[in-house]
Specification:
Chain lengths: 305, 156
C-alpha cells in the first residue's frame, strides 16, 4: 500500500496535535534516550552548508536511535562543488537512505528536495527561511520549564526582523490559547508586519517596545536572539544595532521566579556571561533538549512509535 | 476618441469568423501574453495589433485567434500581466460571449520568484506560487515562502 510520506519542511506544515505528539515523544526519549528504533536503517545527513551544532545534535539523535549515518559534512569536499545539481544529489541519495536530514544555504531547497526524494526529508535549515526542528526544541524547552504551552507571556528580544527562529516560534505558539507576545527590538529590526497581522487575525495580544527595560518583569519566557551580521546588506546598519540589547543578570532580579531565558545559540554578546549562573538561564539545557526533540521528530516521521 | 480614429482602429485588425479576440492587453506585455498562451506554438491564424490607443491603458494590444476557444484556467494565466484583458468569443462573425480574466489562486511556472536566494532562481525548477492577494497582487513562493508583489513581478 502506498502511503504519502511525511516530511518536516516548515513549522506551519504541522498541526497543533502533531506538535503535542512530538512533545510527548521527546519526553519519552528524555527518560530513555537509547532505543534501537532505527536499527538497520540509514539516515543521510546532508549539510550543504556547515553547521556543526545542528549536525552533531541530529547525528547524536540518530545514533541514540541505533541508525547509521551517511552524508556530507563539509560541502567543500563533496560533489556539490563539482557543480552537481541539488536535484541529482537528492535523486542519488534517496535510493540509499531511509530518511534525509538536510541543511542548505538556499531558501526553499528543503521543500524542493522533499518533492524530488521518495523518502522523508527533515529541513535542518534552508538559508534564512525555515529551521523547524529548532522551533520544536524551543517548544519542548518551554513546555518543560513552564509545564504548559498556553497562557504564556513570551518576550522576544533582538533581531525580530531577520530572525527566523522567532518567526517560527511565534507561528507555532500562536496555535495555543491565551498567549501574550512582547517584542523588544530596535527600529531597524522590528517584527515584520505579516506576523503581526497573523496575531491580530487570531485576536492574540502583542506589544512592541524599543527599550529593553524592566517590562520583562511580566515575562514567562525571554527569547533572546543574535543580531547576525550576514543578514545586513549595509555594515553600518549592523554596527548601529549590534550592542543595543544585552541581557545582564541584574535585569533578571525583579522578574518572575518561573521565567526562563532561551537562546538558539551560539550567542555573541547579547547575553552577558553573568547570566549563565542564574537559575533563570536555560539556553544550555535548551540545546540538550534538541537531541530528544530530534529523536522524537524522526520517530514521528518514520512512524516508529 | 474621435469616430474617425475608431474606424481606423477597427481596420487595423481584420475580423475573424470563429475564434477569440483578446482586447485590452497592456502593449508592453503583448509578447508575454503570446508566450504564456503558447500562441507562438500553434498553427491557427493569428493577427495582432499593438501600440493602439487606449483610454484606460495608454497603449494597448489586441490579439485575434481563429478557431481557438480558451478554457478558464488557461486564459486566467494572463491575468497576472493583463488584469484588464477582455475576451470576445466570436462565432460566425458575431460576438456570442464576453469574458473577463480573473487572477487564479495558484500560479505555476509563469512568474519568477523575486528572491535571488530562492532555490528556483538557482536550479531549473518550475516556480509555484499561492496568490495571497489579488488586488494588489501578492504571490507567495511555495519554495522560499517569500512574497513577490506587483512591483517585482517578472514573467519567465
Ligand atoms: Zn522563492
Amino acid at each position: 500500500m502506498y502511503m504519502k510520506k511525511r516530511d518536516l519542511i516548515s513549522i506551519t506544515d504541522y498541526s497543533r496535535e502533531e506538535y503535542l505528539r512530538i512533545m510527548e515523544l521527546a519526553a519519552e526519549f528524555e527518560k530513555n534516550p537509547n532505543q534501537d528504533l532505527l536499527k538497520g536503517k540509514v539516515v543521510a545527513s546532508l549539510f550543504f552548508e556547515p553547521s556543526t551544532r545542528t549536525r552533531l545534535s541530529f547525528e547524536t539523535a540518530i545514533s541514540r536511535l541505533g541508525g547509521r549515518i551517511i552524508g556530507i559534512a563539509d560541502p567543500g569536499s563533496s560533489s556539490v562543488t563539482k557543480g552537481e545539481t541539488l536535484h541529482d544529489t537528492i535523486k542519488m541519495v534517496t535510493n540509499y537512505a531511509d530518511l534525509i536530514v538536510m541543511r542548505h544555504p538556499l531558501e526553499g531547497a528543503a521543500r524542493y528536495a522533499a518533492e524530488v526524494a521518495t523518502v522523508p526529508v527533515i529541513n535542518a535549515g534552508d538559508g534564512a527561511n525555515q529551521h523547524p526542528t529548532q522551533t520544536l526544541l524551543d517548544m519542548y524547552s518551554i513546555l518543560k520549564t513552564q509545564g504548559r504551552l498556553d497562557n504564556l507571556n513570551i518576550f522576544m528580544v533582538g533581531d525580530l526582523k531577520y530572525g527566523r527562529t522567532v518567526h517560527s516560534l511565534l507561528m507555532a505558539m500562536s496555535e495555543f490559547e491565551n498567549q501574550i507576545f512582547n517584542f523588544i527590538a530596535p527600529e531597524e529590526l522590528l517584527m515584520p508586519e505579516e506576523y503581526k497581522i497573523h496575531l491580530r487575525e487570531r485576536g492574540i495580544r502583542y506589544f512592541e517596545h524599543l527599550e529593553f527595560t524592566d517590562i520583562i518583569s511580566a515575562a514567562d519566557i525571554i527569547y533572546m536572539t543574535r543580531v547576525q551580521k550576514e543578514r545586513f546588506s549595509d555594515p553600518i546598519e549592523y554596527e548601529k544595532v549590534k550592542n543595543v540589547y544585552i541581557l545582564r543578570e541584574k535585569m533578571l532580579r525583579n522578574t518572575k521566579s518561573n521565567v526562563r531565558v532561551l537562546h538558539p545559540l551560539p550567542r555573541v554578546n547579547e547575553i552577558h556571561t553573568d547570566v549563565d549562573s542564574s537559575e533563570k538561564a536555560y539556553y544550555f539545557e535548551q540545546a540538550l533538549n534538541g537531541v530528544f526533540t530530534r529523536e522524537a521528530i524522526i520517530a514521528h516521521i518514520l512512524g516508529l512509535k | 476618441m474621435k469616430d474617425s480614429t475608431k474606424k481606423k482602429l477597427k481596420l487595423k485588425v481584420s475580423a475573424i469568423k470563429d475564434g477569440t479576440v483578446i482586447d485590452h492587453i497592456p502593449a508592453q506585455n503583448l509578447f508575454n501574453v503570446i508566450t504564456i498562451l503558447g500562441l507562438n506554438k500553434i498553427d491557427n491564424q493569428i493577427t495582432f495589433g499593438t501600440n493602439l490607443e487606449s483610454d484606460k491603458l495608454g497603449s494597448k494590444a489586441i490579439i485575434k485567434v481563429s478557431d481557438k476557444f480558451f478554457a478558464d484556467d488557461e486564459i486566467n494565466k494572463i491575468a497576472l500581466i493583463a488584469p484588464h484583458a477582455k475576451l470576445n468569443i466570436i462565432r460566425d462573425y458575431m460576438v456570442t460571449e464576453k469574458r473577463v480574466v480573473e487572477v487564479p489562486d495558484n500560479v505555476t511556472g509563469i512568474v519568477k520568484c523575486f528572491n535571488p536566494k530562492c532555490i528556483t532562481n538557482n536550479e531549473v525548477i518550475v516556480t509555484r506560487f499561492r496568490v495571497i492577494s489579488k488586488e494588489p497582487l501578492a504571490l507567495k513562493c511555495c519554495y522560499c515562502e517569500k512574497i513577490t508583489d506587483e512591483a517585482h513581478l517578472k514573467v519567465i
